[in-house]
Write a structure and sequence with these properties.
Blueprint lengths: L1 H24 L25 H27 L1 H8 L3 H26 L4 H19 L7 H29 L2 H12 L1 H20 L5 H19 L21 H10 L1 H35 L13 H28 L6 H23 L4 H16 L1 H12 L5 H17 L2 H13 L6 H12 L1 H31 L8 H9 L5
Helix pairs in contact: 2-6, 2-7, 2-8, 2-9, 2-11, 4-6, 4-16, 4-17, 5-6, 5-9, 6-7, 6-16, 7-12, 7-15, 8-12, 11-15, 11-16, 11-17, 11-18, 11-19, 12-14, 12-15, 13-14, 13-15, 13-19, 17-18
Protein name: SPNS lysolipid transporter 3, sphingosine-1-phosphate (putative)
Membrane topology: Multi-pass membrane protein
Keywords: Membrane, Transmembrane, Transmembrane helix, Transport
């Protein structure tokens, strides 16, 4: 009995010691996290550089993010002209987006690995330099070399892969607490804003010059400015610095160990599947909506079909404006709701994402069905659906930052990007184009059937949206535990390679 009592006493003492370590080193990991017991407020905000330098860094990263997404959707803004110029079908047109995303998928894990181990600033500069050259080169392709345009668009993915995997982790290392949520929201708000401006500026430049290729020449100029600002103004902060450890608490591990850790993180896995469904939906809608609305108006007799270049791009312009406005509204609203609920609902973030996905699905369904009878009603439901979908952008980024330890964030970003694009928007534009082409063979070709075939292929999107909402509901079941486990790992309480075994042996707990 004495021996048993002694063993229990030692365990109790060890638990007390671990609790003490947790209290002293709690990092308040993530802006919406329930902190471990601490004497300080859970919303403490820590900056590792001067506030002015940190804000300038975020501003530069936001600018480059804006240019990246402008370029990505400039092609969609002038797609009708591209189809006429190269005389290509819907499925072939979808290849332009698919090959870009495929290169993105292949390179993202590589940049994620490098971003967790080497100077992130230099990696981004190298990738963006390739992006500028490839984007400019793609604007000089002639009508007999469509394959070259496809190849160059694939190489454009190099720059975006380097930037998208690394930039959010730098922001995560500059800020913590509520400020991190605000800064992440500011960064991700430029996804819909940049996408919308891609339609607007692309279509406007094409109309002004009479040549769609000039739309591709503006972005490299703006990108060169971003490259200069990145080189001069952006630092490479220590990993985990905003969490109070400067990356020193957790030793670097092998890539396979990093992947093993992430696959055991259920919140990361389920949220990545949710992001994948969201990417499928947004990728298809973003690429095909302008041309879908144009065909709807031709079918209704509102506007004539495009027989010569330049084609009417008014739908791209209007859709771009809707995307910008709803993106700003949705991201701001999602971030605000998240901050309001953080103290009362520990799993608020994935629930917000689930509500956004599930409620946007019927809106997009209504927009698709109403396109044949009322274009204004279609735009209204597109606007509501995009607002609901945009609730997720900043919240999703925050989830990843607080359920993954600092030294594995770039790898986590890269894996999430790889999965969501591989199963999401890499294939959705091509898939919908292929379905549309297949359906068009069942009836004689006409403007009405051209519209209907694309409409029927679009109906796949709302169902994928519902599936994404279910994935986020699954994330909500695990988010609280995984967040606290990441805090313990960052504090050095748990073994970073195989956390459950060591921590269970020491403290008799299944956490971490």
């Amino acid at each position: 009995m004495e021996t048993n009592g002694s063993v229990m006493s030692l365990k109790d003492e060890e638990k007390t010691r671990l609790s003490s370590v947790s209290n002293e080193t709690s990092t308040r990991y993530g802006s919406i996290a329930d902190s471990l017991p601490t004497d300080e407020p859970s919303t403490a905000e820590i900056t590792v550089l001067s506030p002015r330098r940190s804000y300038i860094t975020v501003a530069v990263l936001c600018y480059v993010n804006l240019i990246n997404y402008m370029d990505r959707y400039t092609i969609a803004g002038v797609l009708l002209s591209i189809q006429k110029f190269f005389d290509i079908t819907d499925s072939t047109s979808g290849l332009l987006q698919t090959v870009f995303i495929c290169s993105f998928i292949i390179l993202a894990p590589i940049f994620g690995y490098l971003g967790d181990r080497y100077n992130r600033k230099f990696i981004m500069i190298g990738g963006l330099s390739v992006w500028v050259v490839m984007t400019l080169s793609s604007s000089f392709v002639t009508e007999s070399y469509f394959w070259l345009l496809v190849l160059l668009r694939a190489l454009v993915g190099t720059g975006e892969a380097s930037y998208s995997t690394i930039a959010p982790t730098i922001i995560g290392d500059l800020f913590s607490g509520a400020k991190r949520t605000v800064m992440i929201s500011a960064f991700y708000i430029f996804i819909p804003v940049g996408s919308g401006l891609g339609y607007i500026i692309g279509s406007s430049v094409a109309n002004a010059t009479g040549d769609w290729r000039w739309a591709l020449r503006l972005n490299p100029i703006l990108g060169s400015l971003g490259l200069l600002l990145l080189a001069v103004l952006c630092p490479n902060p220590p990993r985990g610095a905003s969490d109070g450890h400067g990356g020193s608490t957790i030793e670097h591990t092998s890539y396979l160990e990093d992947v093993k850790y992430l696959l055991k993180n259920k919140s990361f896995v389920w949220s990545s599947l949710g992001v994948t469904a969201m990417a499928f939906l947004t990728g298809a809608l973003a690429f095909w909506t302008p041309i879908f609305l144009s065909r709807a108006q031709v079918a209704q007799g509102i506007q004539p079909p495009c027989n010569t270049e330049p084609c009417d791009t008014s739908d791209s312009y209007i859709f771009g404006v809707v995307t910008v406005v709803t993106g700003i509204l949705g991201v701001s609203l999602g971030s605000t709701i998240s901050r309001k609920l953080r103290d009362r609902v520990p799993n608020a973030d994935p629930l917000i994402c689930a509500v956004g996905m599930l409620s946007s699905a019927p809106c997009f369904f209504a927009a698709i069905v109403l396109a044949s009878t009322s274009i204004p009603a279609t735009y209204v439901f597109i606007g509501i659906g995009e607002t609901l979908l945009s609730l997720n952008w900043a919240v999703l980024a925050d989830i990843l930052l607080y359920v993954v330890v600092p030294t594995r964030r770039a790898t986590a970003e890269a894996l999430q990007i790889m999965v969501c694009h591989l199963l999401g928007d890499a294939g959705s534009p091509y898939l919908l184009g292929s379905i549309s082409d297949a359906l068009r063979t069942y009836q004689p070709d006409s403007h009405t059937w051209s519209f209907r075939s694309l409409e029927y292929s679009f109906l796949l999107c709302p169902f994928v949206g519902v599936l994404g909402g279910l994935f986020f509901l699954m994330t909500a079941l695990y988010i609280t535990k995984d967040r606290k486990n990441a805090e313990l790992l960052t504090a050095g309480v748990c073994d970073p390679v195989d956390p459950p075994t060591r921590f269970s042996a020491m403290a008799g707990s299944t956490d971490c």
